[in-house]
């Protein structure tokens, strides 16, 4: 079957950008309503259960990637028999995953009070609320959820994104309305499984209409099943590491400090994550085509490309790090109020945390292009274990600050240093590894100095009106940060090459 690649790509980009923008804005609205209508403990409870269920849902991670990957060739060859056999396997595995989530999740119910330090809302039953959210997580693996793989494999991510967009707008819109009208948290969580069922039914309907010959029947060759198992294992470990990062942090905050602190932590993390999503939208053009370049160019050429792309990416990431440092508190004061704010020491650490999540992003694109999931398995496992161990140790002594430091350490040591060492050993010249580390150290030092200068300049803004104060701080932050980065980099050869690369759209 011939795919309209260019047309599909444009459609996917447009809908994907809209989807991400809406999904950045909606959570802020929902969190605001929960705090104002029910209180911060409910918000903390919502964050805790979401974190627990994110960990449970890891059982699927990697399988969807493997299914889509193995559909590309039979779709290109119009091999409907293999496509149907893949769907049949996918459906069976999804059912097993859904049942496993229900069983494992149910086992955790008696231990829920132990995951909360201090008080929790007494007018709700923890087991009932958790069971509803558990059911919602499991339902994503029943009905026709597995058929989303068809949309991805046929390059119709736009339809999948639209379905997800409508579902999230439906869920969170209904939750906001119900909270205002009833102030009932049970109805708030019941919205989730209702819309999950509707979403899966819609996916089933649209895929049947678009691909009428796609049916769950037949069996796969043992060789294909073996390849799927290996790909699942490698990608699962990678994704599990990234997904559990904030989930483990949130659970540890709840265990050590209670639901209110969990809510506050996740408010700050939500802002940080929203900025990350915006960067992904803006930076997609820089990371596209890396796989093709790895296949067609020399490692020396690609190392030069890595440095140019890394420079632009860290320029944007550094700018956003400074903005977070300067604008976190005034935004939180307007959004949540003084009583739900962290001290400046935590803001500095959150800015550092954000920066550490970005330093390995471009490198990871080359890791993916080289198919190094399996070689990265011990690194990923170590990162998760180090993060958890340090969360417990530092969280006990330093609270939220300790948990943020723990995650930053695990990212720098395991993700950045260890991950880069594996990539350079496999692909780039190992002699260039020191150069890679040194230029990242230089970028960090420059960002730290600029961040400190801009922060102290923003602190000179002392207008009492909180809205005017935020507007003036934002103006100082934007103008001064941009000016300082240009002053440092604008005359450098790398800056000129990178700007030229952007203008030409080539790397």
Index terms:
507 residues, globular, 0% strand, 18 helices, 81% helix, mainly alpha, 2 domains
Describe the structure.
The protein is mostly helical. The protein has 2 domains: 5-220, no CATH class; 240-504, no CATH class. Helix content is 81%, strand content 0%. The chain is built from 18 helices and no strands. The protein has helices at residues 5-37, 40-56, 63-76, 80-107, 126-139, 148-153, 157-182, 185-210, 222-257, 259-287, 290-296, 299-335, 344-358, 361-369, 377-426, 433-459, 466-489, 493-504. The protein starts with a helix and ends with a helix. The mean pLDDT is 85.
Would you summarize the structure shown here?
With 507 residues, the chain is mainly alpha-helical. It contains 18 helices and no strands. The radius of gyration is 24 Å and the shape is globular.
- In this structure, how is the largest beta sheet organized? none
The tally of domains stands at 2
Give the C-alpha Rg: 24 Å
Q: Termini, distance in Å?
A: 31 Å
Helices, by number, come to 18
Structural class: mainly alpha
Could you report the average pLDDT, rounded to the nearest whole number? 85
Would you count the extended β strands for me?
0
List unreliable stretches of 5+ residues.
none
- Tell me, what's the shape? globular
Quaternary assembly: single chain
What's the helical proportion of residues? over 70%
Element order, helices and strands?
Answer: HHHHHHHHHHHHHHHHHH
Strand proportion: under 5%
